[in-house]
Specification:
Layout: H1 11-38, H2 42-47, H3 49-63, H4 68-76
Helix pairs in contact: 3-4
Amino acid sequence: MKMGQHRKPTAMELLERDFVKCRARILEIAAFIDRIDRFEGSDGARKDFRYRAIFQALEIISSVEGNRVREILLLLSDPTLQPLEDVLPPQRAQGAWRPPR
């Protein structure tokens, strides 16, 4: 190997290096869902498109082989081609795609 070149890590090396960070993120997601479920108005929150998108993304993570990132990005992204600027007032980002009503 030439100086300055790095070999790709093995799958086990990636697991060893990143597991704790990934574990923390999973716990953060679980804690977020638990908080929503404990607060007043949780029934309404469970019907929200963003709450449902979290569980759809978790299903993708646990069931899809291959490019999970792509599948989750498609799940959360607006698939329409027409800009909505003239239809909707400017608002902050939602983080998940909500089909028009």
